[in-house]
TrEMBL record:
InterPro entries: IQ_motif_EF-hand-BS (IPR000048), IQCF (IPR039887)
Keyword terms of this UniProt record: Repeat
Molecular function GO labels: calmodulin binding
Keyword Repeat included in the entry's annotation: yes
Protein name as annotated: IQ motif containing F5
Organism of origin: Oryctolagus cuniculus (Rabbit)
Keyword Repeat on entry: yes
SMART domains on file: IQ (SM00015)
């Protein structure tokens, strides 16, 4: 029975060696798969981080563009309002000037005015006056002797 027993132990040893080798190869495969999964997870985390930064950049760019558009709209609206108010102010100012011109002309004609000139000669003063009161006009010419002591 000696030789059979050695073949049984050889078979048992070979079988145990196969089991150990299978376990070791499985461990190596599982370790390789774990490392590959970890590397894939790291790459996915990095990619998600990059996508989040890209989305934040797009959001910020869109927001800044919108803010610039809003600012431009507000600026144009203020210019248009300023232009309309200035037009209205200029029209009112023109109306005021027209009213003042007519009022001054009316006052001048109702109150009257005096226009004239004078000339001073040796011992006389010649005066020519034109007095206007509304539609009436009066012309005065007078020569006044001056009291000069010799």
């Amino acid at each position: 029975m000696g030789p059979k027993r050695s073949t049984n132990t050889n078979k048992a040893n070979a079988s145990a060696a196969v089991v150990i080798q299978a376990w070791w190869r499985g461990t190596l495969v599982r370790r390789t798969l774990l490392h590959a999964a970890l590397r894939a997870w790291v790459i996915q985390c990095w990619w998600r981080h990059k996508l989040a930064k890209l989305m934040e950049l797009r959001r910020r760019t869109t927001l800044e563009f919108f803010a610039r558009q809003e600012w431009a709209v507000v600026r144009v609206q203020s210019w248009v309002r300023m232009w309309c108010i200035r037009q209205r102010y200029c029209r009112l100012l023109n109306a005021v000037r027209i009213i003042q011109v007519y009022w001054r002309w009316h006052n001048c004609h109702t109150r009257g005015f005096i226009q004239g000139d004078y000339e001073l000669k040796e011992d006389r003063l010649n005066i020519q006056l034109e007095i206007s009161l509304g539609s009436q006009a009066c012309k005065v010419q007078q020569c006044i002797p001056l009291p000069i002591k010799e």
